[in-house]
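Regression check, xanthosine-5'-monophosphate case 518:
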Amino acid sequence: METSHDTIVILDFGSQYTQLIARRIREAQVHSLILPASASLATIRALHPKGLIFSGGPASVMDETLPSWPQEVLDEDLPILGICYGMQLLAHVSGGIVSAATRREFGRAELTVLDRTDLFRDLPSSGPFPVWMSHGDRIESLPPGFVCLARTPNSPVAAMKYVQHGKRWYCLQFHPEVAHTTYGPQILRNFLFTICGCRPTWTMRSFLEHSVEQIRARVQNKRVFCALSGGVDSAVAAVMTYRAVGKQLTCVFIDNGLLRKDEAVSLPKLFAHYNGFECRVVDARDSFLRRLRGVADPEKKRRIIGRQFIRVFETEAQRVGDVTFLVQGTLYPDVIESVSAAGPSATIKTHHNVGGLPSRMKLQLIEPLRELFKDEVRVLGRELGLPEELIARQPFPGPGLAIRILGPVTSERLDILREADAIVREELAPGVVDQELWQAFAVLLPIRTVGVMGDRRTYEHVIALRVVTSVDGMTADWAKLPYEVLERVSNRLINEVAGVNRVVYDISSKPPSTIEWE
Ligand code: XMP
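Current build output:
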């Protein structure tokens, strides 16, 4: 993006924490971008970075072949911060000795700081303090010209710098980006402001102003179309576009019959205070249900829903007529060419996005959130005045309740699951439970079990309760909810949802399980 913001470029050597580094930098109001470690020097130069960060990664500098990376970047006289593998790589190319540690160091370690002049500036002189380690190799001897800045009991060189001949290279064996490193944010701020001289101008307000102008200049007097999904991303993208072009934007919300209770009614209301914001609800419930009849296979369900979505979408776009642009809520993690093992695409399944459509319909894409992380989108949503109810929404899969009904989808089963889901959401809403939950939902199992209600034997449905904590949906743990909360949810589900006589709690983590049951 063309702005006057200072930028830090992170070269990704495959660490699970690379995106976290980028987010921490942005929290300090400095713009950051991630490039694969194999990026060319020209690509890096084109971004005019004020500094570089080499991330951690699974490789070892003692491996026969090193991951490819633009070594010429070392001649650029840019400040560099090497973290974990990034540190070992700098040590290795500078003639230091890196070897396999006799004791690998994972988790908490106590850091003793030896030099507080720049990277550790303003850290308390009392110490040691906790840092988060995750490494098998360690620096045995300093490369020539380097100065040791800190140590831990296991790493004689836990931090070092090389400041001469125009170079300013800083290295950390530990991870300043993770919450367990107590002064991590301060260390990163020192790198950004003291060492790189960045200005803290990256705020969602300035981003918003700039993006709105850009959209306006691009769209001019053409028509723009947007399909709202009910989630925060498409809503924020749409409202930004609306701010830029007003009534030239038409939004539709396709009710596929697989939505949560009252969603088709409540969603348009959330936009009510934007004067003239057009959000039409398209009732396509029958067409989706008809096509799903008798289908039990989850991937088949997804394909049917995806295809039908595209049909309805196309019809609606044609109804608006003469559309040139399509707004999509694509986020930064979906566009980063990450080399991380799981990769960003592992977050989300192939779902009913409108992938091939823009080119088929000759639509140009407007993706105002391409540069942002989810937490930034939420801040932007608040900046735009969107209600908290929408901003704090849990992720909800595109194919909706269809993949939470195991086996064929029928309207009777949808009714049961919708009621159950509403109760789960109510009882586990933020503020009602203390824990911060990633998702809390009900799954309807394709079996019936015996129960007794009053004096009668029953033979009814089972609801599985899925409640997880997670930071990004890629890994997750089942939430250790208090028994009283579980008891309340179970009682309400059995007493209030006709057709349910048993509730079970899912105690599997991801991996090896997934969050959705499909
Ligand atoms: P799994 O089940 O793979 O889900 O552990 C990871 C996260 O992704 C969400 N999910 C989806 N989100 N469209 C979406 O927008 C989809 O088709 C889809 N499928 C799963 C899921 O709810 C969880 O948060």
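Comparison notes: Residues 348-349, 351, 395, 397-399, 439, 473, 510, 514-516 surround xanthosine-5'-monophosphate (CB under 6 Å). The two ends are 38 Å apart (CA to CA). No diff flagged against the previous build.
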